[in-house]
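Listing 4. Sequential folding, example run.
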Amino acid sequence: MAIGASAGAVEALLQILPALPAGYRLPVLVVVHVPRDRGNSLVSLFQTRCRLRVKEAEDKEETCPGTIYFAPSDYHLLVEADGSLSLSSDEPVHHSRPAIDVLFESAADAFGTGLVGIVLTGANQDGASGLKAVVEAGGMGIVQDPATALVPTMPRAALAACPAARQADLDGIISLLLEQTAT
């Protein structure tokens, strides 16, 4: 699973990630737009609130089910063909590094139909073309209902680029995730 969020991300993720049960069978890859001049405190914030292992993604690391991987500040997070992670300092995308599109597009190539891509609240277009790539690869696209997002710009852009994506509020997203992994 790949999740992308920007403005309002912490609040949305604090509802979704702690709801995932111990033993969750998918790795969870998360990109949040974090300014490069600020340290990434997301791991310490979520470690005590989640039943899953929470860590910062490392270059060349293999993904493990039931682990939440946060992209480090100022690095793009990508998924290699073998499912391992890689980090890149390539140019920002949509003024962001890490960028959601970079993660989603590489994860779509690696995981295809096994990928769930989720775009949450945020203030730019990042995630829209990446979510389209997820759905075109046969994966499931989910977008936070813009009416429930703290900042609806990213969800609106994702829905415009990918009308086939499922739209839900945060509780609905949690339900979809639990259903998706129950099979």
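-- end of first protein; second protein begins --
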Amino acid sequence: MSCNNIHYRAVVIGASAGGLAAVGAILAELKSTFCIPILLAQHISPHVESHLATHFAAKTALAVKEAEDKDPIKRGSLYIAPSNYHLLVGFDGCTALSIDPPVNYSRPSIDVLFESAADYFGNELIGIILSGANSDGAAGLKKIKQRGGLTVVQSLDSAEVKTMPQAAIEAANADHILSLKDIGHFLNTICEC
């Protein structure tokens, strides 16, 4: 899994309002050979059963599943935070679920996922912030940047809701600000398995 002479081991994506379409568009662009694991925190109502795994499985060749506690993070897989749980990367490199209080009014919280992933993967992590209506993810993306990871933010003109990308751009000095249609292509370009 080499990417421009850097060995990236995971991608984390955070999205909120407008995120279903945004994540779907990225997944649809990924080549069938894209095998870096992806972990997704998509804000959803805590009061409804999530069907995100079924929704996204139709758009990608990745193995898609709702994350469970202690899932080994495997190549070629997409792990989705369950409704009303924080998704984290544990110190053992497996997924972890938490019912700790919401962060930025959100559970799952993008910051929680990004910060735990940055602690585990360090400079071998790619963080992506997409459309959304609050500032969740900005602090997490900043931590990824501080740990030497690669940071990507959806461009404001391509975001359905600009608040989250704007906050991330201001907080993290993102390495790349890309239109939605370019993010999947960018991942394919820099990452080969």
